[in-house]
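Q&A log
Question type: sequence-to-structure
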Amino acid sequence: MSTTTSSPVSEPALSASAASSLAAPAPVAVVKHGPYEDAQALFSGSLFVGITMMMYAQAGLLTGSTAGLAFVLHYATGWSFGAIYFAINIPFYWFAWKYVGKEFTVKTFVSVALLSLITELGPRLIHIDYLHPAFAAIAGGLLMGTGVLFLARHKSSLGGATIVSLYVQDKWGIPAGKVQMAIDCAVVALALWVVPLERVLWSILAAVVMGIFLAVSHRPGRYHGK
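Response status: OK
Response body:
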């Protein structure tokens, strides 16, 4: 009695071109931002951060970077926050022009000027009667993170540590949110001689909330718009 051995049916092998097309995803088309999109993002981002600054001022909180230094001087001297903030950022424009690029520097200058103007005019247009520091820290951290993200994706920033953090991310791949969080917490901690400890702790919470938001939402390679 003869036995027949049947070989298992094998699927046809993929051609080399088909296999490579499956292995390598199609390149993503990069869409360049237009002038209107840039203008909208710069204004919206500056407005979000401006609202955050007004919330922080109402709740007696601080933030990091040059804005934090401006808050410290504002609380200590009573000088205009917007004017101090604009002046402190002037040296960082040189760093941005040299290491980041001309377009980034010009857009950052515009964003800083817009934020200074918004913080000057804002209190005349909106007034908050009561604001708990916890709400200001959490909502403000998210609002500021969103505003900074808008600006970063349109090649802009609010100066200071944001310029440095974006440079570090592009240069060494360290997430900008982590760098920003470390710098902001250090600046806020320096304000202990001006602001009560409780307010400093709420301010650190705000910096952590914003840093986590940026670390999750602003990673290298995640956004392809230019």
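Response note: The CA atoms of residues 13 and 148 lie 50 Å apart.
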